[in-house]
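Team,

Forwarding the record for the chain on the shared tracking sheet. I've put the sequence and predicted structure together so nobody has to dig through attachments.
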Amino acid sequence: MLRSDTKNNKGFTLIELITVIIVLGVVSVGISGFIRTGIEIYTDTTERNQLLGDSRFLMERLTRELRMAVPNSVRVKSNDSNSIQCIEFVPAEWVSFYSHLSVFPDTSTSANIVEFANNPIGFRLTAGDFAIVYPTDKHDVYDLTKGKRKQINSCEDNGADTDCETADDPGGIARLTVSGAFTDHSPASRLFIARKTVSYCARQSNRSIYRNEGNLTQEQTVYLTGTLMAEHINNDFDNVNEALFTVYQATLTQNSLVHILLAFERNEEIINYSSEVHIPNVP
């Protein structure tokens, strides 16, 4: 006759099960909180690095382009409501020196400049390029009636080469034919070649900055769109003390200066930039 021994039956009591469930719950809450904190730190760091990267890219790009601007070509503009603020300038595609220049009342239309053949950046003249000589203010750059900017019609090198791309002239001189005589000589005999304008426009509505390229013959434009350069702009456009771009024209004691004041904000993370960019080129 078999008998069951109840003393050998093993298991968990209700109290033990409840205790284990409580312990596991406490541990799970602790682990999940630790994981959540780690994820939040990673997300904040990633967003902060992205904001830093975007803002630094904009500042570096804008600073480099401004330093290559034609002297006194930098100007600012905004729309009527001041909700869009732009800075515009003319990049110098090439800078040369001239040995001869047609200046009023001379009726000839030519300029002999240092040859730009075999240059390291591969510069080539294109149709519609302009020669600019001695621009002392922004009107000299943008207003044709000032006589400081003339269209380049052709280029000859040694009388045989019509594209001025080879260094076959022993004197190293290229001859430009321009649309008319210039108003003044440059004290340093400098001649700038330009073909376009570049604008950076900040929009308050979507807190973004766009880059645009325009034609030198058109009026200054306030662009609504373009190539997106940066987001999360946090400047107060209505506060004159927070103007994004301020231009200080050149004087007898200093070169032209551009003050850039930008604020970026993302998820309550704020980054402020206050930069002064000197325009090294002089007329």
